[in-house]
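Recap for those who missed Tuesday's class. We walked through two folding examples back to back. For each one, the amino acid string is listed first and its predicted structure tokens come directly after. Nothing is annotated here on purpose, so try labeling regions yourself before you check the end of the notes.
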Amino acid sequence: MNRGSCEVCVFLTKENGVFPDETPLVPVLHHVAVMKKRLNIVTFSEKAGVSVATVSRALNPKTAHIVKPETRRRIQDLAAQLHFTPHPGARILRGTSMAPIAILLRNKDKIFLSEYYARLMSGMMHAAAERKQVVHAIAFQPDYEEDFNEQLTAATVGCGGIIYLSDTLTARMLIGLERLHQPFVTISSCLPMGVDPSDLTVPVFGTEEKTGGYMVTEHLIELGHQHIAHLNGPANRRDVRDRREGFEAAMADHQRVVRSDWCFNEEFTFESGVAAADYIFPLLEKVTAVVCGNDEQALGLIRGLATKGVSCPERVSVTGFDDALWASRHSPALTTIRQPWLKMADASVRMIHELHLKDGMKKNSRELNLFTPELIVRETTAAPRG
């Protein structure tokens, strides 16, 4: 059977050796052929020259007022002429509701153990539930050699919108998204280097990463720290670069020197922080503070330095980024940057719904929602001693 086709099977019950009323087979097959040509909302929308979403709204009494009067009359007149009525069971036609939202996550081990993704997912599920919306979490790894839109379509069959949290997008992918038929939004950390989010036609949400990097560095400087090291995440990630730029900007504004041999890039893991203690420890003859790219790195570094007899913050101050669950439960409690998880999650779901009302990418807007993070001062930072 070809994809998208519909086969109709006709069963005639034979009684006493004959079919009821000697039903002729040819008329039955003719009736089957007529059924196979019956209009559905896709074929009707093609005849009307508008999108499926516009047809559904124009023919739904609750949403007809959203459609322009002339367009609404044209659709309703054509529906009456063709005796077309949308199937009441089609979920996407019920008011302004839509098919499930696909949340595309990085396809890697322990993704659901990551607090970063867990908090975003929790917030998105809450925001979607408030809108009586279903979400599907999908592990997705883009193939940079294949057509990106085709990959998205194949991975999100049956979904009405996409929130992208997977691997870094390329400029070519972003340009191609203008042809995507589904509403699509992405988090700013998935954007490629050198791309200004305000120039995109794809809606973007996220945190002002550079602001966060600046705030936490300035906090250390105001405590009196002169020599500060920087332990960050993978150098090819946009959020990592933005946090580094915030660090450098604060150092420059306060006449502090950034030394490249005091700046490191590792994975955003507890284990990488523990390992980093091996090369941070020799620097402590001068370095009195370390700005870390996330909380896991920071807590790992504190643990690794503790095994070498270095206490925090007595000998070195350490900061994180994210305000993960254990940041406040660790002893000493971690000074960090709190990401606005709920605001980010709500913005992503809201933008998907607004795109749905605008017929998706056909009427997309350059919406940019970058939220300001918050500095949370706890016990791992203090004035330098000695």
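Example two. Treat it independently of the first, because the proteins are unrelated.
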Amino acid sequence: MQQFLDTVNEVKDFLSIELFKLNNVKINLYNVLIGLLVIVITSLLMRLYKRIYKRLIARHAIDAGTAHAFYSIIKYVIWVVVVVLLLDTLGVKVSILIASAAALLVGVGLGLQQLFNDVASGIILLIERSLKVDDVVEMENEMIGRVVSIGIRTSKIKTRENVLVIVPNSQLVNDRVINWSHVEKLTRFHVDVGVAYGSDIKLVTELLKDCANAHEHILMQPAAFVRFVNFGESSLDFQLYFWTNEAFIVENTKSDLRYKIDNAFRENNIDIPFPQRDVYIKSHKTS
């Protein structure tokens, strides 16, 4: 028994060896091991939590955007708490540290206003959830993409060209952003088409609907419909409206529709006119 106690005391003495000293804070081997242990355990718990929410997403038990928002918030909160506890364990007074850094932060903050603005915007996005992962958005510069991730300072958006764009969160909060899939993925689009005067407009309407109903990415309910928009200068103008859940690739869907419409019109002898202009040349007789 005495030998065991002696071994324990030797271990304590070994762990109490001072490695270095910062001001009045002494860092020994015990502090380092405890810190590493806490970081490892926290990392493992966060990985476990990430696996759980990914399984819930796969089972459609929770929305992907909601799960990611909660994960991001919890991750930042837990790591802040862990860092504060570690500093307290080392004997660092966090309140004194914050107070002493306040003056420095004021001076630095003047040069880092945009950084703080982005961080505050990231917190707003995560809490308000006006933008979520997998949402299809359109920016003010007409860039369209799918939200891949929302970080504390920046967010990542993958465009239709498969380019990953890193966007500061302040742009997503302050600029005008169209979220095509915020409430639901179901979105309505339309294709413009003009036919020659004298065409059978009832046949045109039926052909347009048939082309929409034959496309795999266009929903049968709500049903596609046609609007007779205007009597144009050289054509009767129609708009084919349709609903789809695939907003991200809707330009491909529109292209497919135009191919189908052109083929259907050719088979039914319906002309798509082009603007024509009559040019009159006046000649001046010279005496």
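Answers for example two:
The mean pLDDT is 79.
DSSP finds eight helices and ten strands in the chain.
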